[in-house]
Amino acid sequence: VSIENLYEQLTTALQANADLGAALRLLQWDQETYMPPGVAAGRARHIGALAATLHERRTTAGFLDLIDELWSQRNGLAPWQLVDVRETKWRTDRQRALDTALVRERSVLHAEARAVWVGARAGDDFAALAPYLERIVETERRVAACIDTDRDAYEVLLEGYEPGMTVARLDSCFAELRAGLQPLVEALDESASAGAPTALEGSFPLDQQRTFNQRVLERIGFDFKRGRLDVAAHPFSMSIGGDVRLTTRYDPGDLRYSLYSTIHEGGHGLYEQGLDATAWGLPRGEPCSLGVHESQSRFWENNVARSAGFWQHFLPAAKESFPSLDSASLGDVLHSVNKAKPSLIRTESDEIRYNLHILLRYELERALIEGTLLARDLPAAWREGMSSFLGVVPQSDRDGVLQDVHWASGAIGYFPTYTLGNIYAAELASAAEQSVGPLHDLLARGEFHVLLDWLRRKIHRRGQTLRAHELITEAIGREPTPASLLKHLDETLRLLQAS
Ligand code: ZN
How far is the CA of 39 from the centre of ligand 1 (A)? Predict the structure, then answer.
């Protein structure tokens, strides 16, 4: 059998799996949006059946042999074929390192813990969750050891979300970020703005909000012929093979919530819509990593949509839609969308403090995996950490260690991808500016397509051709550091101090 023929077999298998995966996601999207409440059990069964079929197809002996054969003959592959084989082999090796019993035990544990977390959070009862977290930590250590006994267990887990990232790189990058954030947060505290309502708080009818969101998404380049915007309790986006479903949630008293969650999810959606459709189902046509995915949402949400240029362009349209903005100046709106106040809750944090919430979680989850922190001691470690990172201490575990579902759903090593996303987004914004000219003027003129084209070329079309760190390095012409993010946040601080 020729190597061309083997590669052909691989693409056929991967694309069939991708088709099944798309069907599975459509069921999940419907479950989160329009599914009537009485059919949950049936839907769980349909989803389970498809997921099991997919898992089986990915682990059959024939498929595993095919990948090994291609890998052994990789010298005969073209560079673009090698990308597909390399990434498929990498993912498959991680999967097959775990025996079926461990895979089953792990998914049952995660499902149970997730359900317990819902009750524990509602009842502020960390003790109920603690034994599950202990088992999750222990199971994740075993998973890491199965995949690679010789490497740092946390790094092996981290790589499941951010392939190629190392703990050493994160440590030095996060230390630089923390040192740079400290003075910004201190300056923020001194200039703490009062709780008076700002321009985008007031009365904003939902129909007009929906129309305005749609208009903003269209202007930044989201293709509604290949996507939708709907409502969900917890906004998310989901790609069903180039058909991108975005969701948001509305607050009639605050324009910011829905608008910024829409733009955030829209950024994820632009990435998915910009992937190479001719490589459907293949690593070349798939998103690079969670960190890169988050960089695309943060780029549009923070670097574009919280800027003066963006609002210079959209304020007239916003005033047409919302009479309550009649007397709002550009400065009022900028102040409103950048307003900073300390929060105990990560998802409600302002942009300047946000990454400190992540750095704390990174420190704690590494200690959990290393065994220097026990799950049962998390609440105390959390309060101590919040005090040292952010200067605030939660009165309850509900507003503390129980606020995020990640650990309870088994995701250890996931949190750093949020901050990597912010770092990459700022680096991309500053590199784009050097390449296409001042962003402020471009945005004020509404020329969003220039930015989108740049991202398409540098990031979207590249799929998994390179690992995240190398992809960003190539896009910006040097290794990424937190410097651009710190500069961006410093500008945000000065904007707040001026208004
Ligand atoms: Zn996101």
Answer: 29
